[in-house]
Amino acid sequence: MSTLAVLQELQTAYNSLRTVERELSTFPPDMARLESSAKVAGKRVEELSKKIDQAKMQIATLTAEHLQAIKAEEHARKDLKASAHKAQYTIAMRALDEKERQLELSQRGLKEAETELQTAEVEKEKQASIQIEDMRQFDELHEIFLAEHENQVVAKERLSKQIEELTGQLDEATLNKFNRLMQGRAGKAVVAMENNVCTGCNTKLRTPLVYQLKAQGFITCESCQRILYIPK
Q1: 3-class DSSP state for residue 190?
Q2: Average pLDDT for residues 141-157, to the nearest whole number?
Q3: Strand partners, 104
Q4: Alpha-carbon distance values, 192 to 146, 188, 196 (Å)
Q5: Which residues contact 28 (CB under 8 A, 6 or more apart)?
Q6: Strands of the sheet with 218-220, listed across from one edge
Q7: Residue 166: exposed, middle, or buried by beta-carbon count in 10 A (0-12, 13-18, 19+)?
Q8: How many angstroms separate the first and last alpha carbons of the chain?
Q9: Structure pTM?
Q10: What pLDDT does residue 20 have?
């Protein structure tokens, strides 16, 4: 089989495979709802996981600050007890009041962060349960759906095998070019020339390229880089 013939068959196989995959991914409303709900829950689990990690880091920082505040408050209390004069006592008392205020603030901040962490962990567990249950129900319905679409399942397997066999007949450079075009040109790598026009990008070919195409069998479109051939 010529390279052009292999490329044409490969393009046709991919076109058919896309149609089959589209049919197999067009779910009934109940399945679509479950799939959507599972995705939403999964995304929420990811967001909450990040939030939990951030909360744990914040708690570690606040805990260290709280311990420092405790030591500072204890030190200020000792200074107060050691005050021998009224002036020293007044200064020490003010310092203690300030350290107690800082200790209270650090304690409050730490408690709020711990509460936020607990809330996020509970919500994450809830969303994870929703995701698991939605996927369980979806998988059950999906088995029934695939059984009802057995022809498409068989066709998908056949086309996948055909694509594997065809790609094995192409040299590495040609296959790489084909794959790049499939990804970058909306799944259309091999297109026909009709009336001297590339049907991929609707660009009229220059006369020398038309002669080259007729002589070689296939060429690259100057405009869209797709593989061009002349239909029989």
Answers
A1: strand
A2: 96
A3: none
A4: 35, 11, 10
A5: 141, 145
A6: 197-198, 190-194, 227-229, 218-220
A7: buried
A8: 16
A9: 0.70
A10: 96
